[in-house]
Specification:
By secondary structure, this protein is α+β, with helices and mostly antiparallel strands. The protein has two domains: 109 residues, Roll (Thiol Ester Dehydrase, Chain A); 170 residues, Hotdog Thioesterase (Thiol Ester Dehydrase, Chain A), CATH 3.10.129. The chain contains six helices and twelve strands. A twelve-stranded antiparallel sheet has the order 1-2-4-5-6-3-9-12-11-10-8-7. Helix 2 runs antiparallel to helix 5. Keywords: Hydrolase, Lipid metabolism. It comes from Rhodoblastus acidophilus (Rhodopseudomonas acidophila). Homotetramer.
Length: 295
C-alpha cells in the first residue's frame, strides 16, 4: 500500500467528537483550499456512520465556502428520516464557525427488481496506456508547470487518460468529452463503505475540467477561476475502488460563468457502477496574467 493511500485511509477515519459530531483533517500538500472530493468523502463517512443498517445510494452536495487545509473540519449530521426502506441524513461541514459545505444523502438496501444500464464506450484497456511515470516521461516537458507538479506528486488515486494528449494541448473545436481510467493506488480494506467514500473522493477529479475542453482551456489556465459549486452522485452497483474503473465524462452546457458536466463510472467488465453530475464556476478572470496560450 502506498503512503498516499495510507494517508487517505487515515483522513477518512473521522474522529467521533460527540453523537452526530465528527472531526476530519486535510492532508498538508500545499493546496490553498481543501480538495472538494475530500470534503464529499468525509461528509459521506460521517453520515454513513449514523446509518449502520444500509449503504448510501445517492448524495447531493453544495460547496459554500473554500475550506482551509490548516484547520480541522467538523461534520454535524442530522438524522432526517429512518424508515423501513430508506434512511436520510443531512451533513454540514463547519470551519471557523461557518458552514462551508452541506450534503444530503440517502441510504437503501438493494432489492430484487427491474434492471438495465447503458454500456461503456469501446476504449483501450488501462494496461495499454502509459502509467503516470511513463506519462510524465513522454509528456512532462510539454506540460504547464502546475499540471506537471500534479502528476509528479505521490497521490492516492491513479489516473490513466484514454487520450493523454488532451492534457497537453487543446483546440477550440475539441468536443467536451474525457475518458479516464481511475483506481486507488493500493489495495483497500474490504469495508464497502470505505470503497464508496473513496469513489466519492475521486468523483470530483477532472469533472469540472471537462467543461473547459471546448474552450481550449483547463482548470490550470491563468485566465480561469474554477471552483466546484454542487455535486451529485448515485451509486448503482457494488464495486471495489482499488480496481480499474472507466470514468466517462461530458459537458453538455456552459454559460454565464458556469459549466455543467456529467460522468459515468464503469467497471472493467462493463457494469455501470455510478453516475455523477456537477456544476462549477468557470469564470474568466479580467487580469489573467502571463500563461501558456493553450492553457
Amino acid at each position: 500500500m502506498t503512503h498516499a493511500v495510507t494517508d487517505l485511509l487515515d483522513i477518512l477515519d473521522l474522529e467521533k467528537i460527540e453523537e452526530n459530531l465528527f472531526r476530519g483533517r486535510s492532508p498538508q500538500v500545499g493546496w490553498q483550499r481543501v480538495f472538494g472530493g475530500l470534503v464529499i468523502a468525509q461528509a459521506l463517512v460521517a453520515a454513513q456512520r449514523t446509518v449502520p443498517q444500509a449503504p448510501a445510494h445517492s448524495l447531493h452536495a453544495y460547496f459554500l465556502l473554500g475550506g482551509d487545509p490548516a484547520t480541522p473540519i467538523v461534520y454535524q449530521v442530522e438524522r432526517l428520516r429512518d424508515g423501513r426502506s430508506f434512511s436520510t441524513r443531512r451533513c454540514h461541514a463547519i470551519q471557523h464557525g461557518r458552514v462551508i459545505f452541506t450534503l444530503a444523502a440517502s441510504f437503501f438496501n438493494s432489492e430484487e427488481g427491474l434492471e438495465h444500464a447503458f454500456s461503456p464506450p469501446d476504449v483501450p484497456p488501462p494496461e495499454s496506456l502509459p502509467d503516470e511515470n511513463a506519462f510524465i516521461e513522454a509528456y512532462g516537458a510539454k506540460m504547464p508547470e502546475p499540471v506537471r507538479r500534479y502528476f509528479q506528486r505521490e497521490r492516492p488515486i491513479e489516473m490513466r487518460p484514454v487520450d493523454p494528449g488532451r492534457f497537453i494541448a487543446r483546440g477550440k473545436q475539441d468536443d467536451p468529452v474525457q475518458k479516464v481510467w481511475v483506481r486507488a493506488t493500493g489495495k483497500l480494506p474490504d469495508d464497502p463503505a470505505l470503497h464508496r467514500a473513496t469513489l466519492a473522493y475521486f468523483s470530483d477529479m477532472t469533472l469540472l475540467d471537462t467543461a473547459l475542453i471546448a474552450h481550449a482551456r483547463s482548470v490550470f489556465h491563468p485566465d480561469i477561476q474554477a471552483a466546484s459549486l454542487d455535486h451529485a452522485l448515485w451509486l448503482h452497483r457494488p464495486f471495489r475502488a482499488d480496481e480499474w474503473m472507466l470514468y466517462v465524462q461530458d459537458s453538455p452546457n456552459a454559460r454565464g460563468g458556469l459549466g455543467f458536466s456529467r460522468g459515468a463510472l464503469y467497471s472493467r467488465d462493463g457494469a455501470l457502477i455510478a453516475s455523477v453530475a456537477q456544476e462549477g464556476l468557470i469564470r474568466l478572470r479580467r487580469d489573467p496574467g502571463a500563461g501558456l496560450e493553450q492553457w
